[in-house]
Amino acid sequence: MSRKDGDKFEAIAEKILNKHSKYKIISTTINSGAFWHSKGDRVVTVNSVRFLVEIKGTRAEKYRVTSKITEKIWNEAFDRNLMPLLLVLVVKKRKKYLAVITIMKNKKINEKINKSFVLTDEKLNEMIGQYWTERVRTDETDYSLRIEVLKED
């Protein structure tokens, strides 16, 4: 994905997020990821809790959420004393789905948990306006992911 595509995905994700009153974007990181001190794409508040937001996007029918990206976002947010939030935008034809994924770290590791899961446009369409949870793990850490699906009208 080019930087230009990334900027388009970020703009669409921000537009969808702005339509939902509980999400308040309080800052945008210019050239996010280009420097050690500019991690995350946005800072958002939800009910006065501050989140570091990483925005990913795809035009494919699915997006794989891995333990590697989950751990990266967790660590970057922790370094800034913020909670981690992953936004995954799936753009398919005229449909645009935004998966809002809150990341929580678990104390115990469950070896039976997979290291990734797949978001499909079919699952996102089915779950619009609802929540569900997934879990992923690294060798050292287990993460719970709370997923909410928003759709552009």
Kindly describe this structure:
- This protein has 153 residues and is of the alpha+beta class.
- It has a single domain, classed as Trna Endonuclease, Chain: A, domain 1 (3-Layer(aba) Sandwich), CATH 3.40.1350.
- Helices cover 23% and strands 46% of the residues.
- The chain contains 3 helices and 9 strands; from the N terminus they run αββββαβββαββ.
- Strands 1-2-3-5-6-9-8 form a 7-stranded mixed β-sheet, sandwiched between helices. Strands 4-7 form a two-stranded antiparallel sheet.
- The longest helix is centred in the first third of the chain and has 16 residues, at 3-18.
Into which percentage range does the β-strand content fall? over 45%
In percent, how helical is the residue content? 10-25%
Number of strand elements: 9
* Overall tally of structural domains: 1
Our Rg estimate from Cα atoms comes to 15 Å
Sheet with most strands? 7 strands, mixed
Strand order of the largest sheet: 1-2-3-5-6-9-8
Structural class: alpha+beta
Top CATH class: Alpha Beta
Kindly report how far apart the N and C termini lie: 25 Å
Would you identify the CATH architecture? 3-Layer(aba) Sandwich
Q: Output the helix-strand order.
A: HEEEEHEEEHEE
**Tally of helical segments:** 3
Spans where pLDDT lies below 50 across 5 or more residues? 30-38
Shape, per Cα inertia axes: globular
